[in-house]
Amino acid sequence: MSDSSVSSVSQADAQHPGTLSASFGRRVLAGVLGGLAGGVVFGMLMAMMGMLPTLASMVDSSSPVVGFGLHLMISVMIGLGLTVLFGNRLLSSYGRGAVVGLAYGAVWWILGPLLIMPLMMDMPLFNLDSTNMFSLMGHLIYGVILGLVAVRVLKSR
To answer: What confidence tens digit (pLDDT) does each residue in 94-140 have?
Structure first.
């Protein structure tokens, strides 16, 4: 891509931050803010259910504060995955952002508490107990909030 075409893309991003060509920086901001917003709400649900020490055990701790911090870091990374990789194509409206977020939360429920966490903690894979069903609800809520906040940031000036 020539310097003039890169410049024109950057100018278009600056003039129309909510368009399908949101700048990389705008997509990063959307992922961080959306991930934090969804992560805080999901983290509060996890705290009420006493699940934060279990999350903290992934880093050899039992502290709920460590669990909450780890949860927020993961939430931001997952948020960045959505907005940086797919934000321009998938987060074009609030309705679409909510649906994409819902699906993204479901995917991360499968990847996180059903696969990655059990592998790390030598637990059974794909265990569909009541705790993991509650986790599904939290991941879906996280995803919707992530999607909606990300759309808001991508559309803002």
So the answer is: 999 999 999 999 999 999 999 998 998 898 999 999 989 999 999 99
Max CA pair span of the chain: 56
Return the half-sphere exposure (C-beta side, CA atoms, 13 A cut-off) of residue 33: 14
Is the CB of residue 33 less than 8 Å from the CB of residue 76?
A: no
Residue 144's contacts (CB-CB under 8 Å, 6 or more residues apart) are 38, 98, 101, 102, 105
- Planar angle of CA 38, 114, 110, nearest 5 degrees: 60
Single-letter amino acid code for the residue at 141? I
Burial label for 31, CB within 10 Å (0-12, 13-18, 19+), is buried
- What CA–CA distance (Å, rounded) separates 143 from 147? 6
Helix (H) or strand (E) holding 98, with range, is helix 94-111
Single-letter code of the amino acid located at 89: R
- Residue 78 buriedness (CB in 10 A; 0-12 / 13-18 / 19+): buried
